[in-house]
UniProtKB/TrEMBL annotation:
GO cellular component, as recorded: cytoplasm
Keyword Hydrolase applies: yes
Organism of derivation: Apolygus lucorum (Small green plant bug)
UniProt-recorded name of the protein: GPN-loop GTPase 2
InterPro entries found in the cross-reference section: Gpn, Gpn2, P-loop_NTPase
């Protein structure tokens, strides 16, 4: 029986999930992969790609809001709970595309990834029925513009990693926009992607006008993040093919696609992908020049 590989694209609203799904699907299709796009964001009323499976055929937030007298957030949570209850429908839809590579465009309500149970249960059911999945968690690079925002993004990302309990890669999206707020960035791009020594960030937090009154809390949060030492990001400008390739290599390792699917038959390419044998400048140096030149002036 063919294995179904795939990824769930998660992250807060507006971080670029749907755009990523569309562009990554195209990128992978150009490499010869048979990609199926699945929309599981019931709030996605206008789709920018053609979805082979669309949760709106089962439930829409608008209907839920009208029938259950809920607001947009409650409506979305209810819709995902409804999808979980109707997993048989969902599985039947996906079964039509056996052996494909699945990209799931997920909703932007982060409580679904940090503490609510339905997304986790949907993932468990998919894994139980043979899907090999990983999470691609997008965070808008605008979060780097203030120390408090960056720390909250790290906490949110860490919570999602711990809660979802699945192979996980994190992506800092829209890095092409970083030059616009370069004057606000005390550190270079690799500091944010590698999440280097957070004591430097702590110093910024202790001086920042919004966070300086919470000195003990700031220290505890930084200590917690340092203790887990799990969060790092890959940079992504959606128009940059080198970034798409880096992200692809990373998610293919995360869910084991490179070891099973036989797409990259060339042994050297396989090894390079498997052991991550890239030089530092290949991985991030070009980006530093492109996106942070104004920061270093
Ligand atoms: N500059 C820039 N804009 C992006 C990038 N990725 C997405 N966007 C824009 O961000 C906005 C929100 O993207 P969308 O995919 O709808 O986000 P979602 O709510 O997470 O699905 C759209 O206007 C996209 O064109 C990127 O890499 N660079
Ligand atoms: Mg979207």
């Amino acid at each position: 029986m063919p294995t179904n590989f795939g990824q769930l694209v998660m992250g807060p609203p507006g971080c670029g999930k749907s755009t990523y799904c569309k562009e990554m699907a195209e990128f992978l299709r150009n490499l010869g992969r048979n990609v199926v796009l699945v929309n599981i964001d019931p709030a996605n009323d206008v789709l920018i790609y053609e979805a082979s499976v669309d949760v709106s055929n089962l439930v829409t937030v608008e209907d839920v809001m009208n029938h259950k007298q809920l607001g947009p957030n409650g409506g979305l949570i209810y819709s995902i709970e409804y999808l979980e209850e109707n997993f048989v429908w969902f599985h039947e839809q996906l079964s039509k595309f056996k052996g494909s590579y699945f990209i799931f465009d997920c909703p932007g309500q982060i409580e679904l990834y940090t503490h609510h149970q339905s997304m986790k249960k949907i993932v468990e059911k998919l894994q139980y029925s043979g899907f090999k999945l990983c999470a691609v968690y997008l965070v808008d690079s605008h979060y780097c513009s203030e120390p408090g925002k960056f720390i909250s993004a790290l906490l949110m990302t860490l919570s999602a990693m711990l809660h979802m309990e699945m192979p996980h890669i994190n992506v800092l999206s829209k890095v092409d926009m970083m030059a616009e707020f370069a004057d606000k960035l005390p550190f270079s791009l690799d500091y944010y992607t590698e999440v280097m020594d957070l004591n430097y960030m702590l110093e910024c937090l202790q001086d920042d006008k919004f966070t300086k009154k919470y000195k003990k809390l700031n220290s505890s949060i930084v200590e917690l993040l340092d203790g887990y030492s799990l969060v790092s990001f890959l940079p992504l400008n959606i128009k940059d093919k080198r970034h798409l390739l880096q992200v692809k290599n990373s998610f293919d390792k995360a869910n084991g696609y490179i070891y099973n699917a036989g797409e990259r038959s060339d042994v050297q390419a396989l090894l390079a992908c498997a052991v991550g044998s890239q030089t530092e400048s290949e991985r991030i140096g070009i980006d530093r020049d492109l996106y942070t030149s104004t920061m270093e002036e």
